[in-house]
Amino acid sequence: MEKIINQAHDKYTFIYALSRLFERASYYGLRSLLVLYMVGESLKMPTEEALSIYGWLTASIVFSQILGALLGDLVIGNKKSIIIGGILQAIGAFSFCIPSTTGLYIGIVLVVLGGGLYTPNMISHFGKLYLNKTKLLDSGFIIFYLAINIGAFIGTILMGYFGEKLWWNYGFIVAGLLMLISIILLLTSKEIDNTQIIEKDIHISQKIIEVLTAFILVALFWAVYEISGMRFFDLEIKFREISTLNISKSLWSSLNSVFLIPISIIAIIVWSLFYNTQFIKLTIGFILGAISYGLLFFIPETPSEQHLILYLVSLLFLSISEIHIAPIIHSILTQYTNPKYLAIVISLVFIPTRFFSYIVGIFNDDLYDNPLFSIKLGIIIMSVTSIALITYVFINKKSSIVQHPSNS
């Protein structure tokens, strides 16, 4: 590790992160309300139909992001795409206030199109803030990731309260207003000038290897995360039933966020002061992920309260793992992609992730019936990936020593 000097986060980092926080609060809040709204008194839709529509919404976002990235990088620019996308999402949220299937479908279409414009261009635009201070890229994206998680947490709780305790329309109105706040924040930020970015002397073949590796790693991580989620959810229910601790149901469901937020803050401080390569961080992430799943393996099918500590430690390690993988992937893509096409590349990373999730979904019932098998699978994948990353880091370090031998 080396100490970082002459590089610092500026106010635009926090403006963009705060904007993303409000946008995610709006989006996840809407998602938490949507199925309940469709099956409720307003639309009285059958549960299967409501879940099918919800599935189409989440799947469509992936493809709309590719379209939004193409428009942002090649036609109207990243910042304009973010603003237009935010406005469309806000109008979409307000459209849900129309108590009819027409209002529902208009809202869904606008939220999908708006999210497609907003997300890849926002990530790209944020990453470009750091292209002349790449040693802070990792900590910058951890700040961004922290904002996403806080936004999702606040949005789900806030909209749930307005929608269930008061009235659905209040939840949708709040979601639209949060989205508009996100856009207002962006209007105070600067446009990124690509001509001012200092080009790094990196061979094209190395760039391709780094980007493809990032694609594979992010897909593997989220696939394993989804597989292991079966076991975590299973244990959460069982510990909730047997625990004598006075913990609410909502807090049990939010334990991951409880760990993720303080760990993110610590990681931001550490990686803002000290620099280490992105692949070192990824190695740390996958090793800790393997340990997290390994700890779960020691919890029996029918746990007792004494196993709760193992469960909590496993969640802690998984949170540290997530912080050293999910945001770092975007850091790699930002550093090794031509800035002119960064949003496009970022939008494409969702395809392998969605593909792996689809494969996992096929075996959902089998994995749920046999949660220990899902943990074994998670341990194997995380361990093999860790060994591959350690080998990669070792070879790169050895190659660097050969190319730059000591003068002594």
UniProtKB/TrEMBL annotation:
Provide the topology term for how it sits in the membrane.
Multi-pass membrane protein
Name the record gives this protein:
MFS transporter
Which keywords does this chain's UniProt record carry?
A: Cell membrane, Membrane, Transmembrane, Transmembrane helix, Transport
Keyword Transmembrane attached: yes
PROSITE patterns per the record? PTR2_2
- Cellular component per GO? plasma membrane
Write out the transmembrane intervals.
Answer: 21-39, 51-70, 82-98, 104-124, 136-161, 167-187, 208-225, 255-275, 282-302, 308-329, 341-363, 375-395
Q: Is Transport one of the keywords?
A: yes
Q: Where in the cell is it found?
A: Cell membrane
Q: What biological-process terms (Gene Ontology) are attached?
A: oligopeptide transport
Which species?
A: Aquimarina mytili
Q: Which InterPro entries match?
A: MFS, MFS_trans_sf, MFS_Transporters, PTR2_symporter_CS
Fetch the Pfam families from UniProt.
Answer: MFS_1
Predominantly, its location class is: membrane
Q: Which PANTHER family match?
A: PROTON-DEPENDENT OLIGOPEPTIDE FAMILY TRANSPORT PROTEIN (PTHR23517:SF15), RESISTANCE PROTEIN MDTM, PUTATIVE-RELATED-RELATED (PTHR23517)
One Gene Ontology molecular-function label? transmembrane transporter activity
